[in-house]
Specification:
heterodimer, A: 65 residues, alpha+beta, Alpha-Beta Plaits, 2 helices, B: alpha+beta, 47% helix, 11% strand
């Protein structure tokens, strides 16, 4: 599983950071998404699906192997 | 199915049951997640009442504009008129919206808001001290629900504590049920003047606060005007005030009506986070937001034309049984991961980390301080207002 983030589309809601702080962060200047790891272990697939689905501006994408 | 097209049903916020959205929203949703409706003034518009349709509208700012001056922009009731001019940030589209939002976004990132937790705990404890000292009974709205957001906003923006009273007074008028149009405009003017002065002051002598960073990084660089900055501060105050106030007061009513849930939360405070998400879903304090279609499109099986108004009913989306099991029940054990009480799309509430922080501090402390807290009058007698916002003007409690 691989997660990608489009910072140009990000609106800085912080949803992903709240739901999955192990993999997402926000930079302190702009508040936009930073991936701290782009390959969460497979057991987190449901969480990642929810995080991607709940991104308000569809800035996250999930590729499943 | 009727063969003769019936007139579009009237869109009304009138509730059959105080704590639930109007029943017709669920009835419409079964056939039409995007329902043609007649508005209070006879105009027709769409009401998005299905979760997917609501998300689709809010995430598509290319087709659905937030600008009230756009032809066809809907008004949901007769009282939905007076406060349009204050909506910088909420009532603009990208790219202008993007510039404004980014100017303050760094202040609302999860970590930055989390850093305000100790101060938030202190200010809540002070208010609970004062409430305890004045004695039972008390009006929880006056003692706590309006004070917390007023003071938190002072802390956030860098305003003196004493000015919480000005915020409280002006916003009380602005969003009061009995305020006339002129009084509302006067209250807005006072607040705008206040923030204009605050911006000018930080321009001369910056401090370590949100307002100064806004001025130094975005006004002094020429990106925003002084007026933009003042109006941004104004909308940050407005956006966080009545919403938080209602969550505190209405959330308390709901929690007190569920002693079993409350007992479980008190026994295991780690459950509060999920319970608060469920309260956010269940209450949906902002019931409806407005958009207007700017280019013909297709949505939820309907042709939507440029100039069509859309009422986006968050409270209906948050009760969609296709997404939430037994949506009308409050299930504090359920992880309401998917609620959209803060909206979605590029306009999703910028203050949501602050709202969560405040609620995570207020509820546990309130019920810890007053273990015997109860309502003075039965919940069914409360004067809950359910217009665009859910609101309680008074909540007498004793302990």
């Amino acid at each position: 599983m691989k997660v990608t983030a489009d910072r140009a589309a990000c609106t800085g809601s912080g949803n992903c950071v709240r739901l999955a702080p192990e993999w997402f962060d926000q930079d302190e200047d702009e508040g936009l998404v930073i991936l701290t790891s782009d390959s969460p272990p497979a057991e987190f697939i449901e969480l990642m699906r929810d995080v991607v689905d709940m991104c308000p501006t569809r800035a996250l994408e999930l590729e499943v192997d | 199915m009727s063969t003769c097209p019936a007139a579009a049903p009237l869109f009304s916020m009138v509730r059959q049951s105080k704590l639930d959205p109007p029943r017709e929203f669920a009835e419409w949703r079964a056939d039409h997640p995007l329902q043609r409706v007649t508005l209070w003034n006879g105009q027709e518009a769409w009401a998005a009442v299905g979760y997917d349709a609501v998300r689709e509208v809010l995430r598509d700012h290319e087709h659905f504009s937030s600008v009230p001056e756009t032809s066809g922009y809907p008004t949901y009731s007769e009282t939905d008129k007076a406060t349009k001019q204050s909506g910088l940030l909420t009532m603009v589209d990208p790219p202008v919206h993007t510039v404004l939002r980014k100017a303050v976004l760094g202040e609302f990132i999860v970590k930055a808001i989390e850093a305000l937790r100790p101060d938030t705990e202190l200010l809540v404890d002070e208010l609970l001290d004062a409430m305890e000292q004045s004695g039972s009974p008390a009006d929880l709205v006056e003692a706590l629900a309006v004070q917390v957001p007023a003071r938190f906003t002072c802390r956030l923006l860098g305003a003196p504590w004493a000015d919480a009273e000005l915020f409280r007074r002006c916003l009380g008028t602005r969003l009061g049920s009995t305020s006339g149009t002129e009084a509302i405009h006067d209250a807005e003017a006072v607040l705008l003047e206040y923030f204009t002065e605050m911006v000018a002051d930080r321009d001369r002598a910056p401090r370590d606060d949100l307002t100064s960073r806004l001025v130094v990084d975005h006004v002094q660089t020429g990106e925003l005007t002084h007026e933009d900055a003042a109006r941004l501060l104004h909308i940050l105050l407005i956006g966080g005030f009545d919403t938080t106030k209602s969550m505190i007061s209405v959330g308390t009513v709901i929690l007190l009506s569920r002693p079993d849930r409350l007992a479980a939360l008190r026994a295991d405070p780690s459950r509060w986070r999920d319970a608060i998400e469920e309260l956010l879903r269940h209450i949906s304090v902002i019931q409806v937001i407005r958009r207007v279609c700017t280019a013909d499109t297709r949505l939820a099986g309907q042709d939507v034309a440029a100039g069509d108004g859309v009422l986006v009913v968050l409270s209906a989306a948050n009760r969609d049984d296709a997404v939430f099991d037994r949506p009308d029940e409050l299930d504090t054990e359920n992880k309401s991961l998917r609620h959209i009480a803060f909206g979605t799309g590029t306009h999703q509430c910028i203050g949501q980390p602050a709202a969560r922080l405040i609620l995570q501090v207020v509820y546990p402390r309130l019920f810890e301080r007053f273990p015997n807290l109860h309502l003075v009058e039965p919940a069914e007698d409360l004067k809950l207002r359910a217009d665009r916002l859910i609101a309680l003007d008074e909540l007498m409690v004793s302990w």
